[in-house]
Structures are given as structure tokens and as C-alpha cells.
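Hi R.,

Here's the chain you asked about this morning:
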Amino acid sequence: IDINLSVNEIVNIVKDNGHSRMPVYDDNIDKSLTHLEELIERTRHVRSNLNIDKKIVDIIDREGDSIALMREYEKNNWLYLIRAKRNATVYLPDGDRDVKQGELADELPNGKYVKTIKFRVNKKREDVNIYVNEIEVEIKRDATKSVLDKDGKKRIVKTPGETIKSRLVVERLIDKDGN
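And the predicted structure, written out as C-alpha cells:
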């Protein structure tokens, strides 16, 4: 793939009329992996097959808000953005406290104005302002994994690991009434 192509141009090469033109999936992947372990293997497979020099940022939804996944991405120097769960706890170095991400987001002021967009509010498209704020946090929790024991019962295994230094980024859409 030409390294000067945009992401959209790469996607068009990778997918043509909904059919993959590049081996996105590795048919030999271990089917006993958890969904996040499988995601890591598929990410590794895709990155090794793209052969481009540009940095790739993986955007991962809440199902991927996993410290084990973050540690694997950190270990591989992969860039990522995770849409975080509100109830996950982070450590706030500036304040020396543990806090749920949702509570911390609620404490932050609106932050920097980005732009105004049209957005559906009460079944009408209205102007809303986008604001973004961020704060340095650390994620120190143990990784957890559900496994079946020898009796076939599900149990949780905790694995300690390195602290992840991160940023909690909060985006707000605010209408003309301040809501």
C-alpha cells in the first residue's frame, strides 16, 4: 500500500464493495481466546499486513475499556483511544485520590470551545457548541479475566500489572440554553 494514501483511500483498498481485498482476519486464530485477546491478535495481524509507515490510532468502544488491553497496546507502542466506562476507577495524581471516571468528568469545567455543529435536540436540529477538556490520570487496577475452572464453573482471575498514565478527555455538546 502506498504510504502517502489517506485513511479513506486505505479503507477503499482494504474493502471493495463490502468484500475484503486484504486478509483482515487470520483463519488460524486460537478460538479459545477471550474477545479482547482475539482483538489484540487481529490487531497484530492487520498491522503486520498493512505495511504502512503512518501511525495508526485504534478507536475502541466501551467493551474494550480493559486494563489488560491497554497494557498490551502500551507494550506494543500502539496508539489507541478508548470510549471509557463511567464507573471505571482512575487515580488522580493531582489530588491524590481514586475517582470514578464519570464523577471526574462531571467535576471538570467545560474546557475549550471547539466548534458549533447542528445536532438533533428534542426532535429538531439545533446549533450546539462542542467543548473539550482533559486531565491526566493513572489507571492502576488489576486486569480481570473470566475463566472456567476444572469443574466448569466461571471464576475471575486478577492479574496485577504496570500503571498506565493516561488522559481522560471529556467532550460536551451544549445547546443555547446551556444544557
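The first strand starts at residue 15 and ends at 16.

Let me know if you need anything else.
M.
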